[in-house]
Specification:
Blueprint: H1 2-21, H2 27-48, H3 53-65, H4 73-79, H5 81-85, H6 88-119, H7 126-152, H8 154-192, H9 201-208, H10 220-223, H11 226-237, H12 245-284, H13 289-302, H14 312-317, H15 328-343, E1 368-370, E2 375-380, E3 414-415, E4 419-420, H16 426-429, E5 436-437, H17 439-442, E6 447-448, E7 453-454, E8 458-462, H18 467-479, E9 487-498, E10 503-513, E11 519-528, H19 538-566, H20 570-598, H21 607-629, H22 631-634, H23 639-650, H24 652-677, H25 687-698, H26 704-748, H27 758-770, H28 794-818, H29 824-838, H30 848-862
Antiparallel strand pairs: 1-9, 2-8, 2-9, 3-4, 5-8, 6-7, 9-10, 10-11
Helix pairs in contact: 1-2, 1-3, 2-29, 6-9, 7-8, 12-19, 12-21, 15-18, 20-21, 23-26, 24-25, 24-26, 28-30, 29-30
Amino acid sequence: GFERGGEMERGAAERRRIAAAGRADSGSAESVDASQARRDMEHSLDASGRLDTDDVSVGMAADKTQDKKSIPLSHLKAAHPDQFGAMPDAVSQSNLRADTTGEHKKGVMSALKSVWSKIFPLPWWSYYIGYGLSFATVAVCTYLMVEFANVLGEAKTAEWLASMAVTLLLQSIVLVQPIKILAIALMYAVLIRKPEEDQDELTKEMTMMGVEPMHKTLTMRDLSNPEVLSKLARIKHSAPPPPDARLLEFQRQQRLHELNMQAVIRDIIFYVVFLVFLMLCAYTNQDYRTYLQNSMVSGSIAKGSYVVNNTPEARATAPPMFDDIDQFKSAFEFINGVVIPTLYPVACYDGTQCSLIQGSNWTQDPSYLLVRQAQLRQLRIAPKQRCTVSKYFVDIISTCRDEYSLFSEEDRDFGPGWVAYNASAPSHVSNPGWQFTGAASVYGTPYSGQLGTYGGGGYIATLGRTRASALAKVNHLFENSWMDHRTRAVFIEFLIYNANTNLYSFATFLLEFFNGGGVIREPKVSTLRLDRYVGVNAVFFIALDAIAGIFILIFMVREIKELHKKKLLADHCLHHLNGALYITRIVVQKLVSWYMRKYPDRFINFAWLVMWDELNQFFLGTVVFIFTVRFLRLLYFNKKIRMLGQVLKYSAGPLGYFGIIFFICFFSFVQAGYLMFFTVVRSFKTPISTIETLGVMTLNKFDFTSFSVGAGKMGMIFFFIYMLFVSFILVNFFLTIILISFKHVKDSWTEETNQYEIVEYVAGKFKKLFGIGKAGDAQSRIDSRFAYIADELDIEEQEREIQLKVDSMMDRLLLVMTGEPPDKDHIKQQLQRSGESGGDANGGRAGGRGGRQLQSSSTSTRD
């Protein structure tokens, strides 16, 4: 009997789950299940003649779940009142549970009232006070606005209201306040909120009242308790069967797919944030005002924009500009007429004398300060003659002058006029412009010009701090022929600081004197920030660099194993090199600042700092480029991105063979063009410039005039042949290889899909979060038999009460109509008749009084 009761209980539990999942079975299926349930009950009655506790539990479960396929407990009571009286434990326990449920319901209602009183503690008439205060606030604001409008006028009021609307709506409501709310909520959730506070007030009240939680974890003490173990055994018997293996496998694969997508999304978010901070560090290392300051400094010296008026009369009498220098004399005239008046002004913009700028190191533009003093630096060749004069002119020309090189430069000391140095002569000792200074003494660096690479030292002549001293120095150098036939390079160097932008500009105007005659001019201005962490953005820059450093460390820790496995340490080492350069630049900046404070009268050579800054910017740009391109790796789950990679992989072989042919043809044209036109076409003057020119021509960007004018007909023929064979034929071969590879990959990828539907997954999560449409995830496809059934609502409690009343009414009606309580045989006949009526094709019409009574009871239950 206990085993049969357990089987019936499991069958009833299975039917309850099916009914709770949807109650969508057809009428015939209901009839079969109902007949099976009744046959099980008949078998139980026939076997024992009495109902045990498990039968009662089945009836109670039928009452609780309102299962149409089970016998209600009220019918069992009516059929066997004596047996129900013989089982006081089960009935008393059920009544106790019912009483406890009522007490719990009252406790829940009281808890709800207490929560309501906590949320809304004010009485009902307080609403009128709130509305009154709101109306008064609006009225006062309106009155003040009208009064201000009368004072300010219509135009000012309109501007005021417009600015207030923009500030309030766009800045405060749309941007500032949401960010504040999110920041405060995040800080509260992470730092202040405790995990146990996640329970709402109602749950806390129910816990305090002693209500047992719905889901309880068993302890070791519970597992040693026989009562708990027996209860657990009964629960296991009523547990649902395991899900289908195919369903489990599908759910497993779906979950693994979701976990992989979540990992990809995390990597993308992490990489995007890292890339944003890396770019912020890269872009904030430079200032957009750098180009403007470079243009100003270069224009003020090279074009003399502050000392020469742009009129025909002024240009006729003006000194030569930087681009007009063609000999030694014009070089001195440029220094006296442009450089000194710009760096050492004595008059304001209107021509009047200004005592404010005299002797204060301000330049012609009062925004720029000359740091220390300007200087002239010359590099010469030694008298050792390594060149030879042609035998046809040896009787006319006795000597020749060599080109400059770092190994043949002059490094001896001289007196004025380049006479032999005499240590006892005061004029020789007190003239540093005639004495050689090594690069290490002035912290100079080699400088690469068009004719050669020049050392960082030389014969240095400082111009002083005032205009008078600068003019006197330049005149002394001019009178003693400071520039002569052995001069190969003259540097005009000075340092300018703009306090408004916190930028330094180190200017180097190079004059290269060619040993064959003539001058090559090359101006260069390098602008940089000496101290990054000053000003209003100092804290922001410090935080930015710190966060970027943390991201870099995390990224390197995550990538170092993979890089070592794949032997791809290029970007890893490059990132380390960029960090070393960045730290070195900061150290050099601090050393320069220390040098400026310790030696206030010496010239500040920013050459080392400029070199480190240029290297740092070069490597920083390279790192940003590499990490930006590497972002494509995270998008490799996309079909299009993977197709692009497969196209390049498929075309690698043909492109390799094509590259060999292309470079052979290209360098053949390079050699022919250089040898034919290096003397007449400027862009072909060196092999490197020839490669650059022909490479640009391959992209159909060229200057045809230089060929037609400089090279004549041969240049036109060369241009036509090159464009035909390289730009048209070879480039089209390259495009053909790419197109064929793309077609092959596309045809083989007809059935290929995206590895991870990231966009669809994220959109589904957002829809699920905001309740838009269906979630579309794995949880929505779970079998209804295994779906979670939430706690019962109040309407279900009311339905059970109605069911009990209807059952009681039907029992009394049977008693009145028959005159005696129904016996077991009568119940058996009723079950047989209801079973026969359940199998009827017309929907189960019942015959007889008992069938009609049970059908009425079942109908009332469904209603």
